[in-house]
Design a protein that fits this description.
Elements: H1 10-43, H2 46-49, H3 62-80, H4 87-105, H5 114-137, H6 143-166, H7 169-200, H8 206-234
Helix pairs in contact: 1-4, 1-7, 1-8, 3-4, 4-8, 5-7, 5-8, 6-7, 7-8
Length: 238
């Protein structure tokens, strides 16, 4: 723990700790996003896309299916292994997750124009930044809002699964609109939660570093889902 200097209030110390903690969480998140971006662009090239989609059948290859479903398995693995895994193992899983997610996201380049992907990414970044700032600076307790947003998230998952079989275009638009609202709200809520954890956690401890990685994963998921929802609404299909 950092040494408390004379005449320096506990509140000031806590704010400084929280600021450093949140900054480290965002650094991990941005690192994961860079890895995902590079993987997505690489596997979108003509030489690599055949690893994901078979040029003969036009369907996913075995590797393609692995990249689609393994990230979800890794998220559950990280959650269940928080106490069991050490920091290096948890970080390695997180980086593997971001790589596989990036590879799976390479398929969007076959559906949407590159310009609309870039534009949507910029809009997502601005929206995420505004909501993250709001979550960090607000003095309002967002706990109740977080509970409602989590219920909305469950509704989105259920509706999305149902719409896989229905294929209803209007329902897809509604899900995307609600999804944008939910993930913008979750961004503010999660940043506030991470800030509060940073005020009471020794980030140099093993558990503090583990929670830092899990916080980065949470914000990564918020951003990626916000981006995908906006892309479904505003992306121009090739």
């Amino acid at each position: 723990m950092e040494e408390i200097r004379p005449f320096e209030s506990t509140t000031t110390i806590n704010k400084t700790l929280a600021k450093n903690y949140v900054a480290n969480v965002f650094s991990l998140m941005f690192t994961a996003l860079i890895i995902s971006g590079l993987a997505a662009v690489w596997f979108a090239t003509d030489e690599m896309k055949t690893w994901i989609i078979s040029p003969v059948t036009g369907s996913f290859t075995t590797f393609g299916w692995i990249t689609m479903f393994s990230p979800l398995a890794l998220v559950f693995l990280m959650g269940m292994g928080l106490q069991k895994f050490n920091v290096k193992t948890l970080l390695a899983i997180f980086l593997a997750y971001s790589t596989l997610t990036g590879i799976s996201l390479s398929t969007i380049f076959s559906v949407y124009s590159t310009s609309s992907i870039a534009t949507t990414f910029f809009i997502s970044s601005m929206t995420f930044g505004v909501m993250a700032t709001a979550g960090y600076t607000t003095k309002t307790d967002l706990t109740k809002m977080g509970s409602l947003l989590f219920m909305g998230l469950i509704g989105i998952v259920i509706a999305s699964l149902v719409n896989i079989f229905l294929g209803n275009g209007m329902l897809d638009i509604i899900i995307s609109i609600i999804g944008v609202l939910v993930f913008t709200g979750l961004t503010a809520y999660d940043v506030q939660k991470i800030k509060e954890i940073g005020m009471v956690t020794d980030q140099k401890s093993e558990m503090g570093q583990k929670l830092m990685i899990m916080g980065a994963l949470t914000l990564y998921l918020d951003f990626i889902n916000l981006f995908l929802m906006l892309l479904r609404l505003f992306g121009n299909r090739d």
